Amino acid sequence: MKLKTLSVAMILATVPMTGAFAAAMDRTGQSISAFLQPGNYAEAGLSVLDADVSGKDIAGNNTGDMAASYHSASAALKIQATDKISVGLLFDQPFGAKAQYNSDNHIFATQTPTGREGTSAEVTTENLTLLVGFQPNENWNVYAGPVWQQAKGEVHLRGAAYSDFGTGAYNAVMKNDDAWGWAAGVAYQIPEIALKASLTYRSKIKHELEANETGLGALNTQLANFNGKGLTEVTTPQSVNLDFQTGVAENTVAFANVRWVNWDGFSITPYAFGKLLQNNPARIADTLVEYNKNQWTINAGVGRKFSEKWGANVSVGWDSGAGNPVSTLGPTEGYWSLGLGAQYSPASNYFIQGGVKYFWLGDAQALTAGSNNVGQFKDNHAIGYGMKIGYKF
Question: What is the pTM of this model?
């Protein structure tokens, strides 16, 4: 069972992460599989997730679908500089959130001078990871390098769900911030049986974002007293990925990925918002968003090469979630998933992949980051789609 005969199926092992929908704000799974491809290699991909997340508010009314669809781009370039040294540059958008509540629901919407508005939020990050690997022989690869990350966010709280914040209508726009972290890992392979395993650690990255915070009436005056006097500190979590694959029959490979993300203790508290909370003895909340449980995600499956041009895979996945109750800005608790992927290789040096994954999202109780129960979200789902182009040179 030589590596050459399994090359198509091995590449397919990267497809199951397409369209990730994971705990808290985890989006891509932060794979480094492109860096571990043999020789010189480049790829670019795009995935889209369409989720349907709805529930009942405390009055028993339907919230409507609050999960806005989003897309995530990725790209990678790997150069085998010498027999023992490799260099890789990886781009992804690892963490994010996008929520939009229906403006007709008074629990999550209110009237403003510009019209009736629903609660909404969007958080985006972009990563560039530079890895340098050392291969003392054909079996081992030790790699490490810096990670540059950009983060920004925007939130608009509306409705009775947030009355305990004393906000009425609160807005925070957090500008782009750049920060640095690092990644390191080790990989082992036995080409004769198509076995490959890797363990990768990514550090936490601390951001200090400048936030413009506004509100209505007296709240806006209070927020103005603190605007520009402090930065909003947000630390994206550290993580560990374990990837494994091995040939199980001719032209067939089994694969698995285990991911741990340190969400426990993560929080977002815009500076002025936090100061108002500290000055309010009746407050029930200390943060805008927080998580209290670490995330575990497992994906496993089988890929098979049917011909020199065609291959496919099937995978199942499980995600633990990051605690329940959860934030109203992401009211799901983990998932189960089923994924299908296919690959077409017009020539031996390039391919096109496509994948789809269906998610059964876990039920969750939604809180306003304190102890105020504002809704129950049940029986929700999501569908992810993805496409990738890879080129060997």
Answer: 0.93
